[in-house]
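Continuing the series of single-chain predictions for the mutant panel. This is the parent chain; the variants come on the following pages.
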Amino acid sequence: METGLQSSHQTRPAIQFPARYSSLKAPSHALGWNQKAILERKRAPKLSPFKSWFRVQDIAVNCVYASGWGILGDLSATFDPALAEECYTNQKVAEQAIIQHMYDPQTKLFTHLWHAKDGSQQRHPVKTIQTLFPLLLDSIPLEAVDEIVRLLGDENEFGTQYMVPTVAKSEKEYNPVANTLLLWRGPVWGFTNWFLMYGLEKHGKGYPFQPRCPSLRKYYMLFLRSLASTLANM
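Parent structure:
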């Protein structure tokens, strides 16, 4: 996983960080991986999910997948209505599965899932930026949207002075300083904030942050300008 999501706070019950982190850093050739065969694969190998120790169902990955079907439907609608309908159907099925399995009506939040070695599905109710990604869904319950907006505006959760952190400030593993080999434990990522901006606009919510803070979009643009300046001077 190039994004480093395997070291996110949400995967801890399944991967048991930091004990196994060193093995994840090992070069692929040292692990005996056949890179050529992997890159030539047309589909994922048929393996039992219970034979692998990595058994996490990520909220963000599933929401991007579902949303992607809707975007493909919009694109194909201009030239192939039948294809568009197939895409919209896939979007609907994916969204229904996400809401059915990951949404908790009592807390109005989406929770990460992982499978224990006995095959049972477990919930890990930790607040990470991935738990905000259901904003990408067309069919997200309205009360869930309101709760996400509340979390974004709460200074004790995701309402920081800058862009949205990868972990809520209320979580014990929140660490906004990138001084650890474990990623996704607090520092800001630009692309995740872009998805949140897209999701907020999708539901007409704008930027629900503290009045004294500029909009998320402004911070995102400042981030991109700073990155472009750094790259230009390299």
